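Action item from last meeting closed. Structure (209 res):
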């Protein structure tokens, strides 16, 4: 016997109930305010692993400590979630007024299209505070854990991605490079719909390597 395991066990990501239970375990290690609701935080953290959730609690505790608070409240968790999802705020970055307006219209374009489409995930937050690599961000959160995706919803996702550039053209009468990541994601999704999921009427239900 060499002490090695001959079987690998694949552990999937926790569902909303599992995330709530994991959060409750880690919350026992820090002083939690009475306003903190683990079920609400669990809903807002789709795709988080157990390690991600542990990191979220630690980040929230750090925010509370920096603010000299005795307990960790929901605002600390919200700020920690923003940092993990969107990157740290770049408060020192100076944006010209025209660039701020362009970013505001761009993000509003995403948000308005998402609001108008029936199958789109609800808009959780819109910001023009530069974070990480982005000048602004529109953040949608699903209302429930989703196992499968569907053609009509995927088409709506592509529409939302194009909403930012269209808003720039309508209200600023110009096009910026800020939509490059949107186009990259839309193209990747459209290509997968055609070549991987067989959702093209022209090419049929075929998978193309």
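Sequence:
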């Amino acid at each position: 016997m060499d002490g090695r395991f001959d079987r690998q066990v694949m552990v999937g990501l926790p569902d909303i109930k599992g995330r709530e239970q994991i959060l409750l375990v880690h919350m026992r290690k820090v002083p939690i305010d009475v306003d903190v609701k683990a079920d609400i935080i669990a809903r807002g953290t789709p795709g988080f692993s157990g390690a991600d959730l542990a990191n979220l609690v630690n980040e929230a505790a750090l925010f509370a400590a920096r603010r000299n608070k005795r307990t960790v409240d929901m605002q600390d968790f919200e700020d920690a979630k923003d940092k993990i999802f969107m990157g740290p705020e770049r408060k020192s970055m100076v944006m010209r007024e025209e660039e701020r307006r362009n970013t505001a219209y761009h993000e509003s374009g995403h948000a308005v299209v998402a609001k108008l489409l029936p199958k789109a995930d609800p808009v959780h937050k819109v910001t023009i505070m530069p974070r990480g690599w982005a000048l602004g961000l529109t953040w949608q959160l699903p209302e429930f854990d989703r196992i499968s995706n569907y053609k009509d919803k995927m088409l709506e996702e592509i529409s939302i991605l194009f909403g930012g550039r269209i808003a720039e053209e309508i209200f600023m009468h110009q096009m910026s490079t800020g939509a490059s990541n949107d186009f990259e994601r839309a193209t990747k999704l459209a290509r997968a719909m055609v070549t991987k999921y067989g959702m093209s009427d022209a090419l049929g239900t075929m998978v193309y390597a």
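Note appended to the action item: The radius of gyration is 21 Å.
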